Structures are given as structure tokens and as C-alpha cells.
Amino acid sequence: MLFSAKCFAAAMLAMAVASWAGLPRPFWALMTTYIVANPLAGAVRSKAAFRLGGTLLGCAATLLMVPAMVDAPELLTLALAAWVASCLFVSLLDRTPRSYLFMLAGYSAALIGFPAVSVPTGIFETASARVQEIGIGIVCAGLVHSLVWPVGMGPTLIGMVDRTLDDAGAWLRAMLQPPAPSDAGRPAAPAQQAARRKLAGDISQLRVMATHVPFDTSHLRWTAEAIRALQHEVAALTPFASAVDDRLRALRDAEGRLPEDVERTVGRVLARLADSGRAAPGRPGLPLAAADAAELRTAARALTDGALPAADGWTLALRTGLAVRLEELIDAWAACVQLREHIDAGLAGRPRPLPAPGRRTAAPAAHDVLHRDVGMAAWSAVAAALAICLCSAFWIFTGWSGGAAMPMMAAVFSSFFAGMDDPVPAIYSFLKALLLSLPLGALYVLVLMPLVVDLPTLAVVCAPVFLVLGAYMARPATLLMAMGLLLSGVLGTLSLHDTGQADFASFVNSSIGQVLGGATAAVVTALVRSVSAEWSARRIQRRTWRELGRLPREADAAQARLHAARVLDRIGLLAPRIAQAGGTVAGVNADDALVDLRIGTDLHALRRHAALLPARLGPDILAQVARLFREHPAQSTTEQAAQAQPLLAERIDEALRALLPPAPAPQAAPAPQGAATGTFDERRRVLAALVGLRRNLFPSRPWTAAPIPEQEALA
After folding, report:
1. Which residues does residue 585 pair with via DSSP β-bridges, in sequence order?
2. Which residues contact 194 (CB under 8 A, 6 or more apart)?
């Protein structure tokens, strides 16, 4: 109710300023205050900035196209349709709130350009007035939501940060719990799978929401860089945590239970990490100092120290892989905790430079790590252009005086819901709200507005409907219907008419045009663009496989983290689609996506250190993995696809046997005099990468301890 009251106050202020300035359609200013409204002040300011930029861009495009092509309506239609489609295509490739700027630039040109066809001589005045009206609405909304009981993003965003760390900590604490009898032989219990998918969703949601941080009204804006770095570090630690979990399961399966020293050491490390990330008022958790992290790394490395006379080669390899990934998990987690402390300092008004890990792994822009589907963006753009052209053709063919509303609404409806797999149900819901609001719109336009003589009277007339619908706009469950009733119905109708001279015929013409435009958008979208959640899930999964097929050729240290973040984002996208498809999609499994995530990390490490393997084992393994993912069958899991390449398993086992003898613990056999200091760590890392590939591609294949041929060892 408070949010609705602030929206109404901003709307009346915008209406007063626009009327005082003598602008022709002041209801555009009023409607803008509701379009940019958001319970969080920072989101209002960022959306306002994006809307103003999009409006200016759309107006500029209109001024270029309409005067030049007004005498050729077919050509003008194609130009406006191409502009809307191009802007929609760009907006769909940027899944952050910034995409609103490009989408608005597209349909703003349609909203201004199509009505101006009948009076092209006034296009500059119309475009100029529209920019002024929208600008007034933006300024008024920003002022009211920023100055009157502003709701900062701090509690919401920090709560999301702490929830993300809590979810990661819960995963760590659950790693040492033995699987339930009903889950034996499965990758993980359903509850654990859901928790991991939730972590992926948390990271993606945090990354998108952080776009608003620089616009916030609190000290949170000083923490934007630390929040971006934290997102990056949490994404980076996920493959390490998943690998530790997998190596623990492998050791448990190999020996029936975890070795006592592994259970004791790993349990202490994971419990300490999870406690350090546990959120508490005023602090992120128990401090994890550099000395603590160093002690935990020493404990992790001790898993392979000393003589292991009872351990066979595969057990030693698993221990080494576990130790390496545990050390990397400790480093990433320590960076997360340190960044969380920097966020607290920024919130207290004492921002400080990022720690060295944050500078070394500077977070990339969101558009570099978020999944982008160029093909679906192109199809959405084609559907929007086709709907606009069909509506315009009907308008031109019939010579209908109110036909301009058809292509306008086709552009709006086609753009607004284009990010969905199947936008048709949402378009129909919005269209239903528009139909329900027509009697209310007629009441305002034809009966009430001609009686309004001053601002107080306008406020009294608008308050009952605006305050009630504004309250429902603050609730996600009712947002779509409330927006349809208020924005598309009442305010849209008021904005499209001269309320002082509106008549019944013009109202009916405009309303029919709006309904037909929305219906055309729905039909064209259903025929050209709509896809099922199952189809979309498979497409997302295939994109990951194609990237893995390229990694052996293109991988480097910088790309490793980018790849991990992108795969995590896709896991967050897969989870709701799998649920929508009934819980199962042939060939697609969100837990299998974690396997692909670990494979990407292993491929990067193996490519960097492939020279440590004898002969051409490294390039051969990388080439076979690339071929596996390039030829990955759409209906198969990664493990099923790998069964068709037994030679790859033999090559991985051969490489493991070649590395195991010369990789004792450093205390037992120190490196020879003059050897490079990093050689031992490099051998451990490539061994861990090979263990990871072996576990991820061939988890059920038994280990073969046959000795490597002497001539190959010499080579």
C-alpha cells in the first residue's frame, strides 16, 4: 500500500508538471511513472535511466524514417518493422535489466511513428513532446521513490548474497553424509540435487539484480565492484565443490566407506569453510584469516603425504584429485568470505580496495557470462516484424482510420514477452486484462475526464482505481494482470486519446485496433516462435556440449572461469524448464550439467599442462574429448555418449599410469636439484584433471592397473 501511494503521488506530480508545461498528452508522463515503478528505489532509478535512453533512441529513429518514407507506406512499414526487430534482437542478447533500453527503443518508434503517418508534418513536435512527457514522468518517479521513504536494495541484495553463501555452505556440510539406502548408486539425493540447482539459480539472479546497484540510494552503490567479484568467485568455486563431492563418492564406492583420515581431514576443512560463510547480523560469519586458509590447505595436501602402502594406483589418484580440488575450493571460498567483508565495509560507508584475489580475477561483465541464444533471439525478431507487417498491411488495405493501433500493439506485445519459451499464454493473459479494462477505460475517457477541471478533481477521480491496482503491481503473483488492467487498459487508453475531445467512435476504433494487434501478435508468435520447455532445455544443453567440443582448442586460464559461470547460468535456466516439462527431459539432467561443468574445468587444466604427459597422450585425449562432444547424441547423457569411445578411457588410464609413479609426496621424494619449483604442483594438477575426466566420463568403468609399455614410457 505504501508503494502504491508513492506511485500515485509521483503520477499526480508528473501530471501537474506536464499540464503546467502545456504538453499535448500529459497522461504519457503519468503512465511513465507507473511503468518505471518498483518497490526498490535503485531499480526505479536504473529503469528510469534505461527508459529515457530508449525513448531518445526510438524518437531519433522515428524522425529519420517517417519524414523520409511517409509517401511510401509499404516502405515505411518495412523500415519500422525492421527497426523493432533489430532492437528486440539486441535486447534479447542482453539478459540484464539494460535490455529494457533496446526493447523500448524498438517499440517507442512504433508508438510514435505509426500514429504520425496521417499527420507527418507534425512528427518533430510529436516526438519532442513525447520525450518531454516521458522525461517528466521519469524525473517525478525518481524523486518520489528516492526521497519519500526510499526502500534501498541493501537488505534484499545482501540477503541474496548471504543466502547464496548459505546454500553453498549447506552443500559443503552435506558432502560427508553417506547416501541414503534408496539413493545408493545415484549421483546425489534429490534434495541435494535441488539445492545445487538452487545455488546456480541464486548466482544468476544475483548477477542480474546487481545491475541496479550503482543506482541505489544507500551506501550499497559503493560495493558494486565487490558484489560483481563475489558473484564471480562463487561461480568459480562451484566446479571445485562439485569435484570434491564426486571424489568423496568415488572413494566411498571404491572402499565401501571413506578412509578414516580422509573423513577426518575433509570433514574438518569443509566444516570450517561452511562456518566461515554462515551469515549473522553485522558480520558474514566466523573470520577466515589468511593463516587459517593456509592451515586448511596444508591439511588438504596431507591427504597424499607420506607412504600409502595399502593404496592402489586408483586410490592414490583419487586422493590426489581430492586434495587438489579441495585446495582450490579453500582458495575460492576464502576469496568469497573476504569479499563479503568488503561488502559490509562498503555498506558502512567505508569502501576499500578489493583484495588481491578480487583484482586478479576481476569479474567480467554480465553479458560475457550469461547464456545467450542468438537463434531464438533472431526468431523472436522475425515474429515481431511479421506481426507488424501483417497489421500494417491490413491497415493499408482497408484504409481504416483507427488502424494505427494494430501495428503499435503488435510491436508492444511481440517485444514484451519475447524472452519466454512460449510467450503465447502471457500474451493472452495480457490481452484478457486489456479486454476486461475496456469498460473502465471507456468510463474514464468518455465520462469522467471531460468533467475534470483541475488536478485535485483528477486525483479524486483516479485514486480508487490507481491505488488498488498499484498495490497489486507490488506483488509478483499479480503483477502481470495488474499491469494489463492499469497500463495497457486505463492509462494506455488515456494516453492514446485527447481526453478533452474524445468521442465514442474514436474510442471504439482504437480499442478494436489494440485488441486485434495483440491477437495478431499472439497468433504469429504461436506459428513462428513458440517452443516447448523440453525443446528449450535440450537446446541449452546442446550449447554447453558445443562449447566443450571447442574448449580443447581454445581453452586458457581466463576462459576457465567464464566457462564455469556460463554453465552455472545454464543450470539455473534448465531447472525451471525441467520442472515445467514434468520433471524429466530425455537426454537432459541438471545434475548431468554439473558433470559438464567439472569437465570444462578439467579440460582447461589438462590443456595448460598437456606437455607433462608422455608422447602425444595429452593432445590425443583432448582431440578425442572434443570429438565426443561435437558428436554428442541429443537424447543421451554425457556418460552414455562416452561409452561409444572406449579408446578414450584407455588413453586416460594410460596417462594416469604414466603420472602416478613419479608423483610421490614431496616429503618422501623431494624434487631433484635444479628442477622447476612448480613442477610438482603442475603434475598434481594434471593428475587431478585426468581423474576428473575419468570420473565424469566413465564413472562405472573399472580401473585397469596394467603397466605402461616400456617403449612408450621411454618416449
Report:
1. 588
2. none
Let me know: does 362 contact 227? Beta carbons within 8 Å.
no
Radius of gyration of the chain (CA): 30
Closest CA to 106 of 451, 540, 416: 416
The predicted-structure confidence for 633-643, as pLDDT tens digits, reads as follows 877 778 778 88
Q: Give the CA distances from residue 286 to residues 241, 289, 632, in Å, rounded to whole numbers and listed in that order.
A: 20, 9, 45
Dist CA 537 CA 577 (whole Å): 6
Distance of alpha carbon 25 from alpha carbon 19, whole angstroms:
8
**Alpha-carbon gap, residue 18 to 25, rounded angstroms:** 8
Residue appearing with cell numbers 555498506? 347
Report whether pLDDT(49) > 90.
no
What do you get for the CA distance between the two ends of the chain, in Å? 77
Distances (CA, A) of 300 to 306, 679, 692: 13, 19, 17
Quick one: DSSP state of residue 642?
H
Distance of CA 704 to the CA centre of its chain: 42
CA distance 625 to 658: 19
From CA 502, how far away is CA 441, in angstroms rounded?
Answer: 12
Note the residue count of the chain: 715
As a whole number of angstroms, the distance between CA 673 and CA 678 comes to: 13
Q: What is the pTM of this model?
A: 0.79
Contact call for residues 371 and 182 (beta carbons, < 8 A): no
392 burial level (CB within 10 Å; 0-12, 13-18, 19+):
buried
pLDDT tens, residue by residue, 672-694: 333 333 467 788 888 899 999 99
Q: By the 8 A CB rule, do 471 and 3 touch?
A: yes
Q: Is 131 strand, coil or helix?
A: helix
Strands, E assignment, 249-408: none
Q: What is the dihedral of CA 345, 347, 348, 351, to 10 degrees?
A: 50
pLDDT tens digit sequence for 527-544: 988 888 888 888 888 888
- 382, burial (CB in 10 Å: exposed 0-12, middle 13-18, buried 19+): middle
The three cell numbers locating residue 702: 573399472
Backbone phi, then psi, for 226, in 5-degree steps? -65, -35
Do residues 530 and 424 make contact, with C-beta atoms less than 8 angstroms apart?
Answer: yes
- Asked if residue 406 lies in contact with residue 455, where contact means CB atoms within 8 angstroms, the answer is no
Is the predicted pLDDT of residue 13 greater than 90, yes or no? Answer: yes
Please name the residues in contact with 709: beta carbons below 8 A apart, sequence gap of 6 or more: none
Residue 413 contacts by C-beta under 8 Å, 6 or more apart in sequence?
387, 427, 430, 431, 517, 518, 521, 522
Q: How many CB atoms lie within 10 A of CB 475?
A: 11
Closest CA to 157 of 93, 69, 226: 226
The 10 Å Cβ neighbour count of residue 29 is 31
Question: Where do the DSSP E strands lie in 122-211?
Answer: none
Task: Say if residues 688 and 605 touch (Cβ distance below 8 Å).
Answer: yes
CB 683 within 8 A of CB 316: no
**Which grid cell is 704?**
585397469
Say which DSSP state 221 is in.
Answer: G
Q: DSSP 3-state assignment of 588?
A: strand
Tell me what the mean pLDDT of segment 235-242 comes to: 83
Distances from the Cα of 237 to the Cα of 101, 274, 351, 627, angstroms: 33, 13, 25, 28
Q: How far is CA 394 from each of CA 398, 435, 706, rounded to the nearest angstrom?
A: 6, 21, 76
Q: How far apart are CA 596 and CA 541, in angstroms?
A: 9
Q: Is 200 exposed, middle or buried (0-12, 13-18, 19+ CB in 10 A)?
A: buried
User: What φ, ψ does residue 546 adopt, rounded to 5°?
Assistant: -65, -40
Q: How much is the pLDDT for 480?
A: 79
250 with 266: CB under 8 angstroms? Answer: no
